[in-house]
Amino acid sequence: MLFIRVHLLILLAVYSCSLCYAEDGSKLWLRYKKVSNEVAKSRTVISHSNHQKALLAKQELDNFWTGPSVELKVEKAQEKLRDGFTIEEKKGKIYITSHEPIGVLYGAYHLLSLQQTNQSINGIKIQEIPSYNIRILNHWDNLDRTVERGYAGYSLWRWEELPHVISPRYEEYARANASIGINATVLNNVNASPEILSSEYITKVKALAAIFRKYGIKVYLSVNFSSPKVLDGLVDSDPLRPEVQSWWKEKVKKIYKEIPDFGGFLVKANSEGQPGPQDYGRTHADGANMLADAIKPYGGVIMWRAFVYNPTLEDRAKQAYLEFIPFDGKFRDNVIIQIKNGPIDFQPREPFTPLFGAMKKTSQMVEFQITQEYLGFSNHLAYLAPLFKETLDSDTYTDGNGATIAKITDGTLNGNKKSAIAGVANIGEDINWTGHHFGQANWYAFGRLAWNHSLSSEQIAEEWIKMTFTDDDEFVLPIRDMMLDSREAVVNYMMPMGLHHIFAFDHHYGPEPWADIKGGRSDWMPWYYHNADSLGLGFDRSPAGSDAVSQYNEPLRSQFAQIESCPENLILWFHHVPWNYKMKSGNTMWTELCEHYDLGVKQARDFQKIWDRSEPFVDSERFRDVQSKLKIQSKDAVWWKDACLLYFQTFSCQPIPYHIERPIHELEDLKKIKLNLKHHN
Ligand code: BDP
Fold it and tell me: Is ligand 1 within 6 A of the CB of residue 146?
């Protein structure tokens, strides 16, 4: 008996130790340590509000805050703070104040992040008001738990067990989001199954909403425009037919009965084979407004996506603009048009979508892709804050200078009642949530920028590194610089100088600039985008070509239209550039292209060196995980470089300059690579 007990004790000790020390990434940036009894006794945390969220804030501070006493207040008079907060230190005490209970929770997490990043709170006096009202993740999760463009395992939502079994990860997910201010989530894929609106699924959604509510997160759903027809056998789903309108009204009523704070719908209509109002000769405005009217009485929002294009003769990059501009001012005030950052599709680099700023009487929001569909899945380290910022800081020149996308979408310029920003999530069931440990940084960065779009990529990276690993400068600084370089490295070894969409067909992993699938849509073929021929490379979008440049305001229009003034990092996006065109560096376009690919490979190898050098600062589990991913990234970078240079060389007919690393692959071998990766939708 005694033997068994001792044995059990040892087992327990080993188990609990491994729990305290296991660094598997499951804790994300929330690696707070529980305070000792002594610390807990040395200070008080008082909440003047009994609201559940304020009490949750108190609980988090009780558990983890090691500083002086704190008082939490929710004050009616502080309306301008909205769900933001102030933190003030006066005479050795800290006061966190908000207008909303959730603001107090945000304030508590902010305070804890100051502690985790070792910042002084003496005399602190800060005020934080979020840039956007709705800070939303879009999950592309299917009801069978596969995740479209997801690279971190199956969906977190265990639909088959809901509503009866509640995974502890639902609350962990909500807490992580709340800690960075994310306050909304779309649970299911934009390629939506009508089933999500069935009573059975609404009950499941209700169970998730109940958990998320504690953390201030509202639930939204993607809806299939044909739901009335498919779910309930209506003859069609024509938005102008009264039966269809009543169907949606009833559906919305049922949802709100179960989930009174339901957020609204996200809709992908008439795009990539999804149904929509155009199936009945109606317009995007007809469709969006019909849903908006149904949901309006409950305060709900319709996020209507502008990602629409068809295989027509018109340049795909121009289509969203052409489709939506005629409806400017025709959308209800609870419709927000959700626009991808670039006019094609989440490429490593695109210019911004010209629709931003062009629709002056319509609320607009940006959609970023956090999941790395086009940036090496969860195998490549690519810190995306610089990509997000590049878009947000772009000046659209609508009505003069300073009309950045940040200001257009946050309501500063057009007084949107509800401003929003969306990120397609990279989260799955993997123990570390995002597949690659550094993928967590992109979830974090999206949340931080949604909260405050003026934060710098550097600052966000530093915060994240300190919270996720260690605050030792010897680690923080090189890792921060590696992160800051990483997106550009991916651009270099995949698609420099404005090249785009030369990925392997369908799954989008690896290069396939030569792909030409018989019977496939031309606008899904790489040649449509790179246009390589004996004269040069790139898509002519100047007035002599597709004239996509005309969708931009001056001075951008002329700047992009003239090859001499076009930014060189987008030159192949806007121009068909001769192989021997003289670049600003003095190189020919061909040599410059070779140098970019070569640089990308070198950068990926440098990341390996930086990481290996940092071994003493990282737990072995995460060290090895990242190390092995960086090996894949370096190999892939060489694969990309060889594939693209050898293929484009068949058109340029020029040697690869001698200062460039020699290819180690044969083009014919690379062409044979067919990865068996499934793309689920
Ligand atoms: C593309 C993806 C596709 C998505 C689509 C979308 O390849 O899987 O369904 O975007 O955003 O990037 O609707």
Answer: no
Pocket test for ligand 1, best of 222, 307, 677 (most atoms within 8 A of CB): 307
Of 497, 502, 499, 501, the closest CA to residue 566 belongs to: 497
CATH of 491-539+576-671, one of 2.60.40.420, 3.40.50.300, 2.40.50.140, 3.90.1330.10: 3.90.1330.10
Q: What's the mean pLDDT in 511-535?
A: 94
CATH of 34-128, one of 3.20.20.80, 3.40.630.30, 3.30.379.10, 3.30.9.10: 3.30.379.10
Q: Which residues of 119-132 are buried (b: 16+ CB within 10 A; e: fewer)?
A: eeeeeeeeebebbb
pLDDT at residue 18, rounded to an integer: 39
Domain 134-468 indexed as CATH 3.30.70.3290:
no
- Tokens for 554, please give them: 């001056």
Helix 385-392 crosses helix 473-494 at what angle (to 10 degrees)? Answer: 70
Mutual orientation of helices 242-258 and 284-295 as an angle, nearest 10°?
40
Distance, CA of 156 to CA of 39 (rounded, Å): 36
Confirm whether pTM is higher than 0.90.
yes
As a whole number of Å, the end-to-end CA separation of the chain is 56
What is the pLDDT averaged over residues 162-190?
98
Closest residue by Cα to atom 2, ligand 1, is: 149
Among 268, 272, 309, 310, which residue has the most ligand 1 atoms within 8 Å of its CB, making it the best to mutate? 272
